[in-house]
Amino acid sequence: MRTxxxxxxxxxxxxxxxxxxxxxxxxxxxNAENATEVANxxxxxxxxxxxxxxxxxxxxxxxxxPADSQTLAEAAEIEKKINAGEGIEEVRFEQGWAWVLNGHxxxxxxxxxxxxxxxxxxxxxxxxxxxQGQTYAYAGETAHVYDATGHAATxxxxxxxxxxxxxxxxxxxxxxxxxxxxxxxx
Length: 186
What we know:
Elements: H1 4-16, H2 27-42, H3 66-84, E1 88-93, E2 96-101, E3 104-110, E4 115-119, E5 126-131, E6 134-139, E7 141-146, E8 152-153, H4 157-184
Antiparallel strand pairs: 1-2, 2-3, 3-4, 4-5, 5-6, 6-7, 7-8
């Protein structure tokens, strides 16, 4: 029985796929690069050794209508400003990080980057929350649940409850971040 050539072929094919460039969402690389900058001491007031990498905002799938992808686009614009450092200040607080633009918190994250929330300038209510692989968009109530590939779904009762819990947790995170931002202000 000659299995060696077949085994070698399988190994070669598996290794050939390892050097392929991902065509999904390159924002994760940008976030990782920014975390490196933070770790090198380029961040605002936080403890640079504790830099956090947050998941990228999913890009809306092609089949998602523009009206339903508006929230993702808005969060992606904030993410782009953060990654570029455009007027953004990072503030470390006890349970995580806050990103401040024009004196307003526009993004918060827990210390591990697993619970991330986006806020419109001047609002204390999140419009987008990412929790462990799920992304929840809000328009009053939960409007959509997005998976990592940007496909949208209307939340069922269980997802609606998870989204409500995520929004409450994001609100508490915002409150804690707001206290740290106020202490940090000149």
